[in-house]
């Protein structure tokens, strides 16, 4: 099993919105926006746009963070100022971290029958810290991220790297993620069993001629995996 993190295991959308709301209050910035939801929506839109630049290799990880701040505030800032603002936001964001309620029961249900790894379009520094804080890190044999791999989802190389880390062929690996294109279609085209967890955080799209299994809750996953006996390599955890 290979897992995405944000909005799959970790409730990123809720934490991001709660964290930014608290940050806007602390920074005295609510007065700039008639409705708080407008500010939150703008932050998410800017985040998505800057992250797309990073995923495409157009900028570095730290650069996309700084540009998110500069665009959101619509002001010139040097790197140190942008970093400081972002770190203050991170403090509020991390205070709101949590996993979805279906995560731990599902991981427990699959702990003996399946091996587990993470594949994320973030960086290992970010995701290992997050998984450790959430009490999940020890459940995964490997954590692979685009920043270190040099290739990001939905490119096949990212998924194949995760399979290699587990020592399994793509057809022996299932991938679970929240985005129908980046996760769902990407995993399917790389030859993995592709499972899209539809938590309502990404727009529904036609995956075309590739097979993507859509579930609404992770509790549906064990039955889906049992339906195909190719999956379920024994766990390496005693």
Automatic annotation (TrEMBL):
<dbReference type="InterPro" id="IPR006439">
    <property type="entry name" value="HAD-SF_hydro_IA"/>
</dbReference>
<dbReference type="InterPro" id="IPR023214">
    <property type="entry name" value="HAD_sf"/>
</dbReference>
<dbReference type="Pfam" id="PF00702">
    <property type="entry name" value="Hydrolase"/>
</dbReference>
<protein>
    <submittedName>
        <fullName>Hydrolase</fullName>
    </submittedName>
</protein>
<dbReference type="InterPro" id="IPR051400">
    <property type="entry name" value="HAD-like_hydrolase"/>
</dbReference>
<dbReference type="InterPro" id="IPR036412">
    <property type="entry name" value="HAD-like_sf"/>
</dbReference>
<keyword id="KW-0378">Hydrolase</keyword>
<keyword id="KW-0460">Magnesium</keyword>
<dbReference type="GO" id="GO:0044281">
    <property type="term" value="P:small molecule metabolic process"/>
</dbReference>
<dbReference type="GO" id="GO:0016787">
    <property type="term" value="F:hydrolase activity"/>
</dbReference>
């Amino acid at each position: 099993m290979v897992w995405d993190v944000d909005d799959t295991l970790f409730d990123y959308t809720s934490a991001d919105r709660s964290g930014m709301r608290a940050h806007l209050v602390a920074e005295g910035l609510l007065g700039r926006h008639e409705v708080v939801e407008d500010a939150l929506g703008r932050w998410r839109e800017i985040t998505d746009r800057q992250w797309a630049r990073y995923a495409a290799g157009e900028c570095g990880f730290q650069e996309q963070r700084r540009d998110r701040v500069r665009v959101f505030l619509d002001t010139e800032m040097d790197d140190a100022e942008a970093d400081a603002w972002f770190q203050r936001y991170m403090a509020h964001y991390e205070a709101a971290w949590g996993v979805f309620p279906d995560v731990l029961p599902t991981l427990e249900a699959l702990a003996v029958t399946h091996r587990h790894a993470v594949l994320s379009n973030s960086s290992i520094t970010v995701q290992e810290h997050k998984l450790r804080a959430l009490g999940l890190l020890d459940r995964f044999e490997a954590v692979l991220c685009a920043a270190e791999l040099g290739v990001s989802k939905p490119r096949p190389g990212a998924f194949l790297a995760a399979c290699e880390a587990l020592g399994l062929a793509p057809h022996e690996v299932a991938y679970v993620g929240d985005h129908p294109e980046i996760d769902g279609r990407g995993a399917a085209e790389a030859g993995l069993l592709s499972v899209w967890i539809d938590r309502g955080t990404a727009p529904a799209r036609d995956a075309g001629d590739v097979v993507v299994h859509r579930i609404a809750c992770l509790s549906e996953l064990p039955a889906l995996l049992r339906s195909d006996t190719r999956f379920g390599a024994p766990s390496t955890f005693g």
